[in-house]
Amino acid sequence: MSLDPKTDMRFNRARRHFLGLSAATGARLAAMSTLAATLLPSSAQALGRKWWKGDGGGNGGMCFLAGTLIRTVAGEVCIENLRIGDLVETVSGEAKPIKWIGYHTFRRGTRHWSKTAMPVRIARHALDEKTPHRDLYVSRGHALYIDGVLIQAADLINGTSITQAVPEDVKTLDYFHIAFEAHESIFAEGAAAESLLLKDDNHEIFANFAEYSRLYPNDPHPAMTPFAPTVAYGGREHLKALIRLVLPRFAPTRVPAQRLYERAAERAANSAA
Asked: What predicted TM-score, i.e. pTM, was given to this entire model?
Protein backbone atom coordinates (compact mmCIF):
# COMPACT_ATOMS: atom_id res chain seq x y z
CA MET A 1 0.00 0.00 0.00
CA SER A 2 1.43 3.38 -1.00
CA LEU A 3 1.16 6.44 1.23
CA ASP A 4 1.27 10.08 0.26
CA PRO A 5 4.50 11.86 1.33
CA LYS A 6 2.95 13.63 4.35
CA THR A 7 1.30 10.45 5.66
CA ASP A 8 4.52 8.49 5.10
CA MET A 9 6.50 11.09 7.05
CA ARG A 10 4.06 10.96 9.97
CA PHE A 11 4.16 7.14 9.92
CA ASN A 12 7.97 7.08 10.05
CA ARG A 13 8.02 9.64 12.85
CA ALA A 14 5.53 7.56 14.87
CA ARG A 15 7.56 4.42 14.18
CA ARG A 16 10.79 6.04 15.41
CA HIS A 17 8.97 7.31 18.52
CA PHE A 18 7.62 3.82 19.26
CA LEU A 19 11.05 2.23 18.82
CA GLY A 20 12.57 4.86 21.07
CA LEU A 21 10.02 4.14 23.78
CA SER A 22 10.65 0.41 23.43
CA ALA A 23 14.39 0.88 23.81
CA ALA A 24 13.94 3.13 26.84
CA THR A 25 11.51 0.69 28.45
CA GLY A 26 13.90 -2.19 27.78
CA ALA A 27 16.73 -0.30 29.44
CA ARG A 28 14.58 0.46 32.48
CA LEU A 29 13.41 -3.14 32.72
CA ALA A 30 17.05 -4.26 32.61
CA ALA A 31 17.81 -1.83 35.41
CA MET A 32 14.82 -3.20 37.32
CA SER A 33 16.16 -6.74 36.92
CA THR A 34 19.53 -5.68 38.30
CA LEU A 35 17.86 -3.86 41.18
CA ALA A 36 15.66 -6.84 41.95
CA ALA A 37 18.68 -9.14 42.06
CA THR A 38 20.31 -6.74 44.51
CA LEU A 39 17.36 -6.11 46.79
CA LEU A 40 15.43 -9.39 46.83
CA PRO A 41 16.62 -12.67 48.34
CA SER A 42 16.79 -15.42 45.72
CA SER A 43 13.97 -17.38 47.32
CA ALA A 44 11.67 -14.39 46.98
CA GLN A 45 12.50 -14.03 43.30
CA ALA A 46 11.60 -17.64 42.58
CA LEU A 47 7.83 -17.51 42.85
CA GLY A 48 7.18 -14.09 44.32
CA ARG A 49 5.99 -15.45 47.64
CA LYS A 50 6.90 -14.65 51.21
CA TRP A 51 10.27 -16.03 52.23
CA TRP A 52 9.55 -16.16 55.96
CA LYS A 53 7.14 -18.22 58.02
CA GLY A 54 5.73 -17.70 61.47
CA ASP A 55 5.99 -14.77 63.83
CA GLY A 56 9.02 -13.06 65.25
CA GLY A 57 11.30 -14.68 67.78
CA GLY A 58 10.39 -18.20 66.72
CA ASN A 59 7.00 -18.58 68.45
CA GLY A 60 5.35 -15.22 68.27
CA GLY A 61 7.78 -13.30 70.49
CA MET A 62 8.29 -9.82 69.10
CA CYS A 63 11.29 -8.37 70.83
CA PHE A 64 14.50 -6.35 70.91
CA LEU A 65 17.89 -8.02 70.92
CA ALA A 66 20.07 -7.50 73.99
CA GLY A 67 22.21 -4.38 73.70
CA THR A 68 19.44 -2.30 72.14
CA LEU A 69 19.39 1.22 73.54
CA ILE A 70 15.98 2.36 74.77
CA ARG A 71 15.25 6.04 75.39
CA THR A 72 14.26 6.74 79.00
CA VAL A 73 13.89 9.89 81.06
CA ALA A 74 17.41 9.18 82.33
CA GLY A 75 18.85 8.81 78.81
CA GLU A 76 19.40 5.76 76.64
CA VAL A 77 19.67 2.47 78.52
CA CYS A 78 20.44 -1.03 77.26
CA ILE A 79 17.19 -2.95 77.31
CA GLU A 80 18.59 -5.73 79.50
CA ASN A 81 19.39 -3.15 82.19
CA LEU A 82 15.86 -1.77 82.43
CA ARG A 83 13.69 -2.57 85.42
CA ILE A 84 9.98 -2.57 86.21
CA GLY A 85 8.91 0.97 87.09
CA ASP A 86 11.55 2.72 84.95
CA LEU A 87 10.12 5.62 82.97
CA VAL A 88 10.44 5.17 79.22
CA GLU A 89 9.76 7.92 76.71
CA THR A 90 7.00 7.26 74.18
CA VAL A 91 6.17 8.86 70.84
CA SER A 92 3.25 10.64 72.51
CA GLY A 93 5.80 12.67 74.47
CA GLU A 94 4.67 11.19 77.77
CA ALA A 95 6.99 8.94 79.77
CA LYS A 96 5.39 5.68 80.87
CA PRO A 97 6.45 3.28 83.67
CA ILE A 98 7.41 -0.25 82.67
CA LYS A 99 4.86 -2.81 83.81
CA TRP A 100 6.81 -5.93 82.94
CA ILE A 101 9.82 -7.12 80.93
CA GLY A 102 9.69 -10.47 79.19
CA TYR A 103 12.71 -12.31 77.84
CA HIS A 104 13.74 -15.50 76.09
CA THR A 105 16.97 -16.92 74.69
CA PHE A 106 17.99 -18.95 71.64
CA ARG A 107 21.35 -20.72 71.74
CA ARG A 108 23.45 -21.55 68.71
CA GLY A 109 23.49 -25.26 67.96
CA THR A 110 20.06 -26.03 69.44
CA ARG A 111 16.95 -26.87 67.46
CA HIS A 112 15.46 -23.48 68.36
CA TRP A 113 18.31 -21.66 66.57
CA SER A 114 16.46 -21.35 63.26
CA LYS A 115 15.74 -18.81 60.56
CA THR A 116 12.59 -17.66 62.31
CA ALA A 117 14.62 -16.90 65.45
CA MET A 118 17.20 -14.82 63.58
CA PRO A 119 16.85 -11.06 64.10
CA VAL A 120 16.33 -8.46 61.42
CA ARG A 121 19.13 -5.90 61.23
CA ILE A 122 17.93 -2.40 60.40
CA ALA A 123 21.16 -0.67 59.48
CA ARG A 124 22.14 2.73 60.78
CA HIS A 125 20.22 5.42 58.86
CA ALA A 126 18.24 2.82 56.89
CA LEU A 127 14.96 4.62 57.55
CA ASP A 128 16.10 8.23 57.18
CA GLU A 129 19.14 10.46 57.66
CA LYS A 130 19.07 9.97 61.43
CA THR A 131 17.15 6.75 62.08
CA PRO A 132 18.19 4.45 63.55
CA HIS A 133 21.34 6.05 64.92
CA ARG A 134 22.95 2.59 65.35
CA ASP A 135 22.17 -0.78 63.82
CA LEU A 136 18.89 -1.95 65.33
CA TYR A 137 18.24 -5.67 65.82
CA VAL A 138 14.67 -6.85 66.37
CA SER A 139 12.85 -10.12 65.86
CA ARG A 140 11.11 -10.64 62.54
CA GLY A 141 7.62 -9.99 63.84
CA HIS A 142 8.50 -6.86 65.77
CA ALA A 143 6.70 -3.82 64.38
CA LEU A 144 8.17 -0.40 63.75
CA TYR A 145 5.99 2.70 63.91
CA ILE A 146 6.40 4.64 60.68
CA ASP A 147 4.11 7.26 59.14
CA GLY A 148 1.31 6.50 61.57
CA VAL A 149 1.20 2.74 61.00
CA LEU A 150 2.87 -0.38 62.38
CA ILE A 151 4.82 -2.60 59.99
CA GLN A 152 6.77 -5.72 60.92
CA ALA A 153 10.53 -5.68 60.42
CA ALA A 154 10.33 -8.75 58.16
CA ASP A 155 8.10 -6.81 55.79
CA LEU A 156 10.85 -4.21 55.31
CA ILE A 157 13.66 -6.62 54.40
CA ASN A 158 15.33 -5.46 51.19
CA GLY A 159 18.55 -7.48 51.23
CA THR A 160 20.85 -4.50 51.75
CA SER A 161 20.03 -1.94 54.44
CA ILE A 162 17.45 -4.18 56.11
CA THR A 163 18.44 -7.83 56.31
CA GLN A 164 18.13 -10.90 58.47
CA ALA A 165 21.47 -11.19 60.25
CA VAL A 166 23.09 -12.13 63.55
CA PRO A 167 25.62 -9.73 65.09
CA GLU A 168 29.21 -10.90 64.75
CA ASP A 169 30.43 -13.39 67.39
CA VAL A 170 26.97 -13.73 68.96
CA LYS A 171 26.32 -17.26 70.23
CA THR A 172 23.04 -16.62 72.02
CA LEU A 173 20.11 -14.49 70.93
CA ASP A 174 18.79 -12.81 74.06
CA TYR A 175 15.50 -11.10 73.33
CA PHE A 176 13.73 -8.66 75.67
CA HIS A 177 10.37 -6.98 75.40
CA ILE A 178 8.73 -4.25 77.45
CA ALA A 179 5.09 -4.10 78.51
CA PHE A 180 3.25 -1.03 79.72
CA GLU A 181 -0.33 -0.60 80.89
CA ALA A 182 -1.22 -0.04 77.24
CA HIS A 183 0.32 -0.68 73.86
CA GLU A 184 2.88 2.06 73.17
CA SER A 185 5.55 3.14 70.72
CA ILE A 186 8.97 3.72 72.25
CA PHE A 187 12.37 4.70 70.86
CA ALA A 188 14.93 1.97 70.20
CA GLU A 189 18.22 3.26 68.77
CA GLY A 190 16.20 6.36 67.94
CA ALA A 191 13.62 4.47 65.86
CA ALA A 192 9.98 4.29 66.93
CA ALA A 193 9.01 0.68 67.67
CA GLU A 194 6.14 -1.03 69.44
CA SER A 195 6.05 -2.17 73.03
CA LEU A 196 4.64 -5.58 73.92
CA LEU A 197 1.03 -5.96 72.84
CA LEU A 198 -0.36 -8.22 75.57
CA LYS A 199 -3.24 -10.39 74.38
CA ASP A 200 -4.43 -13.99 74.40
CA ASP A 201 -1.88 -15.02 77.05
CA ASN A 202 1.00 -14.28 74.66
CA HIS A 203 3.16 -13.39 77.67
CA GLU A 204 3.46 -17.16 78.14
CA ILE A 205 5.87 -17.40 75.20
CA PHE A 206 8.53 -15.73 77.35
CA ALA A 207 10.82 -17.72 79.61
CA ASN A 208 9.78 -15.72 82.67
CA PHE A 209 6.02 -15.80 82.03
CA ALA A 210 5.36 -17.08 85.57
CA GLU A 211 6.69 -13.78 86.91
CA TYR A 212 3.87 -11.91 85.21
CA SER A 213 1.26 -14.15 86.79
CA ARG A 214 2.88 -13.69 90.18
CA LEU A 215 3.05 -9.91 89.85
CA TYR A 216 -0.44 -9.53 88.41
CA PRO A 217 -2.60 -12.37 89.75
CA ASN A 218 -5.77 -10.40 89.03
CA ASP A 219 -4.77 -9.72 85.45
CA PRO A 220 -4.41 -13.24 84.03
CA HIS A 221 -5.76 -12.51 80.56
CA PRO A 222 -4.58 -9.08 79.43
CA ALA A 223 -6.03 -7.83 76.16
CA MET A 224 -4.58 -4.60 74.83
CA THR A 225 -5.77 -2.57 71.87
CA PRO A 226 -3.10 -1.72 69.28
CA PHE A 227 -2.32 1.98 69.40
CA ALA A 228 -2.01 2.17 65.59
CA PRO A 229 -3.16 0.13 62.57
CA THR A 230 -0.87 -2.63 61.32
CA VAL A 231 -0.01 -2.99 57.64
CA ALA A 232 1.43 -6.12 56.07
CA TYR A 233 3.62 -6.62 53.04
CA GLY A 234 5.72 -9.24 51.26
CA GLY A 235 6.00 -11.71 48.40
CA ARG A 236 4.71 -10.46 45.06
CA GLU A 237 4.17 -7.02 46.54
CA HIS A 238 7.96 -6.70 46.99
CA LEU A 239 8.45 -7.35 43.28
CA LYS A 240 5.71 -4.88 42.41
CA ALA A 241 7.46 -2.32 44.59
CA LEU A 242 10.67 -2.77 42.62
CA ILE A 243 8.71 -2.27 39.39
CA ARG A 244 7.32 0.95 40.82
CA LEU A 245 10.83 2.14 41.63
CA VAL A 246 11.80 1.77 37.97
CA LEU A 247 8.46 2.47 36.27
CA PRO A 248 6.61 4.71 38.74
CA ARG A 249 4.49 6.26 35.99
CA PHE A 250 2.90 2.93 35.10
CA ALA A 251 2.50 1.45 38.60
CA PRO A 252 1.68 4.08 41.24
CA THR A 253 1.93 3.29 44.94
CA ARG A 254 -1.44 2.53 46.51
CA VAL A 255 -1.01 1.32 50.09
CA PRO A 256 1.11 2.43 53.09
CA ALA A 257 3.05 -0.84 53.32
CA GLN A 258 4.20 -0.51 49.72
CA ARG A 259 5.28 3.06 50.30
CA LEU A 260 7.27 2.21 53.43
CA TYR A 261 9.07 -0.69 51.76
CA GLU A 262 9.82 1.33 48.62
CA ARG A 263 11.21 4.23 50.61
CA ALA A 264 13.67 2.04 52.52
CA ALA A 265 14.59 0.05 49.41
CA GLU A 266 15.13 3.16 47.31
CA ARG A 267 17.21 4.72 50.08
CA ALA A 268 19.36 1.56 50.18
CA ALA A 269 19.77 1.55 46.39
CA ASN A 270 20.77 5.23 46.35
CA SER A 271 23.29 4.67 49.14
CA ALA A 272 24.88 1.79 47.24
CA ALA A 273 25.10 3.77 44.00
From this structure: 0.68
